[in-house]
Amino acid sequence: RISGSKSALPGGLSGFGFQEGKTPLVLSDLHNLAAYMYAVVDIETTGGYAANNDITEVAIVLFDGEQIVDRYQTLVRPQRPIPYSIQVLTGITPAMVKQAPAFEEIAPVLLQKLSDCVFVAHNVNFDYSFLRHHFKKAGIDWSAPRLCTVRLTKKIVAGLSSYSLGNLCREFDIPIRQRHRAGGDVEATVRLLHYL
Q1: Phi then psi for 69, rounded to 5 degrees?
Q2: Cβ of 94: how many Cβ atoms within 10 Å?
Q3: pLDDT score recorded for residue 149
Q4: Around Cβ 34, how many Cβ atoms within 10 Å?
Q5: In the prediction, which pLDDT does 5 show?
Q6: 117: closest CA among 164, 189, 69, 54?
Q7: CA-to-CA distance for 137 and 29, rounded, in angstroms?
Q8: What digits encode the pLDDT tens for the residues 50-86?
């Protein structure tokens, strides 16, 4: 559930076709993406479920619908070991995160970046659930309106064999660097959102 009053949402999202509920919030009207500020987010983690895993990297790009207005990226020191398979996938090793800040240390900065923005991610429930869970562990009750670029792309371009970020970047000739690192994936997600 979105916290706070509807009038506090950026641009009056309640009147623009954003929907609340168990599914990600989606746009029912796609003609005016430039009316809002988007926090486009990608995270890397130690595994697939927020309750049993930790965040190892966060990247946020603030995008106003036309241009990037801010970037933030940091490694995060997890409380759990990073499985070898995840190290191979992301390239993030225990040595890289040993001196990184814990989530609790960066939570105030993340909260500031995400405030009054539409939360955007590719497969948004993954990133959102991790951040919400770890904010809660840090004593912060955070929520935000969400936009999923997987669902958005399916709504605009039907019939693709795969809606993975890598496949969509190939389909639309969007450059993607440092695949499976938060910074590279978030930049590609911003370009995808802008393309759509």
Answers
A1: -110, -15
A2: 12
A3: 92
A4: 12
A5: 28
A6: 69
A7: 35
A8: 999 999 999 999 998 888 999 999 999 999 999 999 9
Residue 74 in tokens:
């940091």
Query: How big is the chain, counted in residues?
Result: 196
Longest dimension (CA), the chain: 47
Helix (H, G, I), strand (E, B) or coil at 31: coil
Which of 32-36, 40-44, 177-181 has the highest average model confidence (pLDDT)? 40-44
Two structure tokens written together for 41 = 């987010």
Cβ-contact 57, 74 below 8 angstroms:
yes
Confidence of residue 175 (pLDDT cuts 50, 70, 90): confident
- Which residue do the tokens 């978030």 mark? 186
CB count in 10 Å sphere of residue 48: 10
